[in-house]
UniProtKB/TrEMBL annotation:
The lineage of its organism: Bacteria, Bacillati, Actinomycetota, Actinomycetes, Mycobacteriales. InterPro entries: Acyl-CoA_Oxase/DH_mid-dom_sf (IPR046373), AcylCo_DH-like_C (IPR036250), AcylCo_DH/oxidase_C (IPR009075), AcylCoA_DH/ox_N (IPR013786), AcylCoA_DH/ox_N_sf (IPR037069), AcylCoA_DH/oxidase_NM_dom_sf (IPR009100). Its cofactor is FAD. Residues 10-119 form the Acyl-CoA dehydrogenase/oxidase N-terminal domain. It comes from Mycolicibacterium hassiacum (strain DSM 44199 / CIP 105218 / JCM 12690 / 3849) (Mycobacterium hassiacum). This is Acyl-CoA dehydrogenase, N-terminal domain protein.
Length: 379
């Protein structure tokens, strides 16, 4: 359990991140940035790294990071989710950093992590054809030896921040098995096509690899176990983001219920609105407990039970965020359904994150399999 001083550190971190995002990612900025071709503000991204150091918060100090853990990173993702931050934070800090650290490839870490920590390198991970649960059987890209390096071929339908990433960490199948490769964003033979998605605050792209040069990360054919581990860490980060966004939806609904006058009284005094807000609170607090527990499990040296904790967190946070986003819109009534109000932005984010890396039903089935046999490495 966190000590009292650790809780104070986490509170200080939360205050710093929240204050930064209030200045750099208010609603007006989100609406402006989400319409740009890049989908994020490079100056804000560099400030997140340079001023706050949160891009590399879970990176060891020897590679320029803060040497913190998932509990600290979860705080960052909560605040980013609340603000609907338009930035490649999940792709870089939630996916790429854990994959690199899990690989054990110190040469690759020394080469790539300092740039990520400094904010000069945006990275993402391609686990399979789309943003679906990790499963070695769904890896569609293939890699072959070519001289001293490798070449990657195939296509991927959906890649998180694939249009802007400077480095792509690509899971591909070789003769030895599942391996991970680093591909430069400007590598010859790589075609990147931005996609128009439901959530306009987060970007994805379709990628095609036409015999693209790649660098092997870790041992050839040995990537499947640590990619499974990094996938679970990404689930925890995403769940924390969902909890932060769900809390913001609850806050918006409660604030409106207190101030919207109808029939001479605040609508929050009506029983139906009271029950709706109470149900939102119960769902959000339950999801927060699950996400905090998963983050604590992730920080244990042995990492035992991480798969179970991560799926519980993702399931609970997905349901809570979706409920909170819809109920926030309903509480606001007609104005909540308009483009001018921010409620619909949270609904869009709630639906896409609900499906990303596995729907609640998918994770319920995964939990059933894991509980039946904890030794199973199921997606």
């Amino acid at each position: 359990m966190p000590t009292e001083s650790h809780r104070t550190d986490l509170d200080d971190l939360r205050d710093a991140v929240r204050g930064f995002l209030q200045v750099h990612s208010p609603s007006a900025a989100v609406r402006t940035v989400m319409e740009t071709p890049l989908g994020h503000d490079p100056s804000v991204w560099r400030a997140l790294a340079g001023e706050l150091g949160i891009v590399g918060i879970a990176v060891p100090e020897e590679f320029g990071g803060a040497g913190a853990g998932m509990r600290e990173l979860a705080v960052v993702f909560e605040e980013a989710g609340a603000a609907l931050l338009c930035a490649p934070l999940l792709a870089t800090a939630g996916l790429a950093v854990p994959a690199l650290l899990a690989s054990g490839d110190r040469a690759a870490m020394a080469d790539l992590l300092p740039g990520i920590v400094a904010g000069s390198t945006i990275a993402t991970v391609i686990l399979n054809d789309a943003l679906t649960p990790w499963d070695p059987h769904t890896v569609t890209l293939a890699a072959r030896r070519s001289g001293d390096g490798y070449r990657v071929a195939g296509s991927v339908a959906t890649v998180l921040d694939g249009h802007s990433a400077d480095v792509l960490l690509v899971a591909a199948r070789t003769d030895a098995g599942i391996s991970l490769f680093a591909v430069a964003g400007d590598a010859p033979g790589l075609d990147r096509s931005p996609l128009a998605g439901l959530d306009r605050t987060r970007r994805t792209a379709r990628l095609r690899f036409d015999d693209v040069p790649a660098r092997l990360i870790g041992a050839d054919g040995a990537a499947a176990p640590w990619l499974a581990h990094s996938y679970d860490l990404a689930l925890v980060a995403l769940a924390a983001e969902q909890v932060g966004a769900a809390q913001r939806c609850l806050d918006m609904a409660v604030d409106y219920a207190k101030n919207r006058i109808q029939f001479g009284r605040p609508i929050g005094s009506f029983q139906a609105i009271k029950h709706r807000c109470a149900d939102m609170l119960v769902a959000v607090e339950g999801a927060r407990s699950a996400a905090l527990h998963a983050a604590a499990v992730a920080d244990r040296p042995e990492g035992k039970d991480l798969a179970v904790a991560a799926s519980v967190a993702k399931l609970a946070a997905s349901d809570a965020f979706w409920q909170a986003a819809l109920d926030n819109m309903r509480t606001h009534g007609g104005i909540g359904f308009t483009w001018e109000h921010d409620a619909h932005l949270y609904v869009r984010r709630a639906k896409t994150t609900q499906l990303m890396f596995g729907s609640p039903d998918t994770h319920a089935l995964r939990l059933a399999a894991l509980i039946d046999d904890p030794r199973k490495d199921t997606a």
